[in-house]
Amino acid sequence: MCNNVNIETQLRRFIRHYTETINLEKFIFLNRNVKYDKLSIDWAVTFEYLKEKEKALTTSFWTSKKRRKKIQRIIEEIPTIEQCKKSNFDIYKNWKCVRCGRKRETFHHVWLCNSENKKMKKIIKDAFDLMVNEIKSIDKYTLDEGNFYDYVWNETFSKLFYSKTQFTFIDIIKGIFPLGLTEYLTLKVKMNLKDRNTISVLFLDFIYDETKLIWYERCNRQIEKEKKLRINRKRKFMRNKSINGRLEDRRLPIRNPKIKAEGLLRGIYFNQKTLDFIIHVILIISY
Ligand SMILES: [Zn+2]
After folding, report:
1. At what angle do helices 11-28 and 274-286 cross, to 10 degrees?
2. How remote is the CA of residue 116 from the centroid of ligand 1, in Å?
3. Highest taxon of the source (predicted)?
4. pLDDT tens track for 54-107
5. Which one of 72, 81, 247, 263 is CB 3.0 to 4.6 Å from 105, fit for a cystine?
6. What are the sequence ranges of the domains in the chain?
7. Which residues does the chain have with pLDDT short of 50?
8. How far does the centroid of ligand 1 lie from the alpha carbon of residue 163, in Å?
């Protein structure tokens, strides 16, 4: 029983659903996700992309590693210089982006650095071309390419810039999918849910793989620089210990500390889908 209501599903499945709901609520209510309250996001596509096509009972080392990397991105916690300052401030305090040598290297700068401008523009173009080609390869759909590209290039989600309020291409790099694009594919191209989800996840995965190369190259340059300056793991650890004395609290701040799997209870009482309910709550609290 849960809240005095009989649960009719298997216990194991119920507990899994419960944990998933708690995690989802925690994630959506993270302070850093406040931007997404007011934007229209297709969370279903994003979570499908994060799942890495994994079946419930198998977990391979490879997929879990990739999934971890994807999650690191969505919470903007890849080890940039600014991120490293949190644990090794004395080593990194004056360090700038290793590629341009001028700007602070935040999560956004990794993709906005002038040195990568050409490559990033190509990735954006290739990603939307891939989507077009995938749709065209399915006979039952007709796509007005001109209209599609007009729509896409006019929207902020196809543009590379940092914004606290607008949906930009950096959000797509994080794995977040714009609901506007979903609506376009549903209403204008008349795609069914299954095909639309498959192509949308393919699109996000393509962007993940292409931008991963940019991050790898940056990491190689960073490693070279650290080798020259003889900064190794041991030194990072020693310095860290001596300065901070203790490990900092790594938990991310949450806006709503009273998370109680509300979405799951809704499912039990009213047969409502968990994700639908959580999105409904976000809409209410943000307007
Ligand atoms: Zn730079």
Report:
1. 20
2. 8
3. Eukaryota
4. 655 555 666 678 888 898 898 888 999 988 888 888 888 888 999 999 999 999
5. 81
6. 1-29+254-287, 57-253
7. 242-247
8. 18
